Amino acid sequence: MNEQQWTFVDRSDWESGEWDNEPDKVQWTDEATRLVCMAHRGPMGNWCGYVGVPPAHPLYAIDYSVVQDKAPIDVHGGLTYAEHCQPNHDPITGRGVCHIPEPGEPDDLWWLGFDCGHAFDLQPGLRARLKLMRDEFDLSFRTDFEQYRTLDYVRKQAAYLAAQLAELA
């Protein structure tokens, strides 16, 4: 599969940072496992990573909270998502958790994912909103230890997740 990228998030109120030259969604096929992977920027500016498994996979249609009981998965922050393609996804703008299948590729993938919006994960959209509140509250503590998880980081985590999921198939 050819990699596809989309940019759709309004970043006009964000500070400048590592996210400036990143897209907001990337879809690719992991070379090692042949599983479809996706990185999608969440509403607060942090990345979320996903791997799609086909209907024959043993974790297909299994909620992420149950997956840990069946197969402990190690990924940034743990699994936080398991769902079919979002019904409101837009293949033109790229918004939403879904993929554009290649010929012969299943379109009914089950997406297992993680997010980089945990404690100490820098979320540029959230930071912009909090900046508006700084006059009322001292929020300086929030940025002392935060780290932005880049697209490259999320791609590596998605590949790691794909390897674990492929091993279970």
From TrEMBL:
Superkingdom of the organism of origin: Bacteria
Region described as Disordered: 1-23
Name listed for the protein in its UniProt record: Uncharacterized protein
Organism: Burkholderia reimsis
